[in-house]
Write a structure and sequence with these properties.
Layout lengths: L19 E2 L2 E2 L19 E3 L56 E5 L4 E5 L3 E3 L4 E7 L2 E12 L4 E4 L6 E4 L2 E7 L6 H17 L6 E12 L5 E10 L10 E10 L5 E10 L7 H9 L2 E2 L5
Antiparallel strand pairs: 1-2, 3-7, 4-5, 5-16, 6-8, 7-8, 8-11, 9-10, 11-15, 12-13, 13-14, 14-15
Keywords: Membrane, Transmembrane, Transmembrane helix
InterPro entries: DUF8017
Organism: Streptomyces milbemycinicus
């Protein structure tokens, strides 16, 4: 996994736009400006209480002016997270139970969804923001993330000397307001996350392993899902790897569009299987108010 996407304190963002890669057009969502406390040796996590994509809009088809960053301004929750809500809402303190026995629940009150991950994953607090940047500026983010093997690979940043780390996989949810359609949003984000996490130098080959397809599950989540891979990524260091993404764009309980994303390193030891990813995706469900 490309280490340029990790460990750099975030700068004030502008309005980044997506890269061009052969025949693909990736649309990078605008990331709102946030105050950041630098923490260079942690994974790409920014803990805030503001919107991850305040405008939630998709812009243009130019290369992003924005490189992956890591910072935190609040402690993150332990991987024993039980999906509890805020302390000022007593009803929100009721734990959300996993629908797969033995798995962990990941909640996102901001995007009104819940999903489960295997027991070995690390679940961050719902307020956590995971951000990737380019040239010190955030280009893409999600909230309420969970990670598999959070410190799977570490490497020294050649410019700063900081130790950077990256997970084997990550999942979370972001806004999709402003997209032309849910199918387009699912497809676009599948490409966006491949670029941001694995291939900011644009050396790999992109392929959709699943074009946008209608998605419905037994929990009432309806929308579109997509999946993509990037292969042949130039190995700039020991953490570089090919990657894959799975997305679901859906309408949340407030009527807003949101996109659930899972990215994972491809062709590496302990790779998260597609079967496991689809099982995680099958647990996606609405988070009702007061739970």
């Amino acid at each position: 996994m490309p280490t340029q996407a990790w460990g750099t304190p975030a700068a004030q963002p502008g309005a980044p736009e997506p890269p061009r890669k052969k025949n693909r057009t990736a649309v990078i969502a605008i990331v709102t400006a946030v105050a950041v406390v630098a923490a260079a040796a942690v994974t790409a996590v920014l803990v805030i209480n503001k919107d991850d994509d305040k405008k939630d809009t998709a812009k243009g088809d130019k290369k992003p002016s924005a490189a992956a960053s890591s910072s935190t301004d609040a402690p993150s929750q332990d991987d024993g997270s039980d999906g509890r809500g805020s302390e000022d809402n007593p009803r929100a303190n009721a734990p959300v139970e996993p629908v797969i026995p033995g798995w962990k629940t990941v909640t996102n009150p901001k995007r009104h969804d819940v999903f489960d991950v295997p027991a070995g994953w690390y679940v961050k607090s719902p307020e956590t923001m995971s951000t990737f940047s380019k040239d010190g500026k955030p280009i893409i983010s999600m909230t309420g993330p969970a990670y598999y093997k959070e410190d799977n690979c570490t490497v020294k940043d050649k410019k700063t000397g900081a130790t950077l780390s990256s997970p084997l996989a990550g999942a979370g949810t972001k806004g999709a307001q402003g997209a032309k359609s849910q199918a387009e949003a699912a497809k676009t984000e599948a490409n966006n996350w491949l670029y941001a996490v694995f291939d900011q130098h644009e050396t790999g080959d992109y392929k959709f392993t699943q074009l946008p397809t209608k998605f419905t599950n037994k929990y009432g989540i309806k929308g579109y899902s997509a999946a993509a891979t990037v292969t042949g990524v130039k190995k700039t260091d020991k953490c570089s790897s090919d990657g894959k993404t799975f997305t679901v764009t859906y309408t949340d309980i407030n009527g807003d569009w949101a996109t659930w994303v899972l990215y994972a390193a491809k062709g590496v030891k302990d790779e998260v299987s597609d079967e496991t990813i689809k099982k995680v995706m099958s647990t996606l469900r609405p988070l009702k108010s007061g739970t």
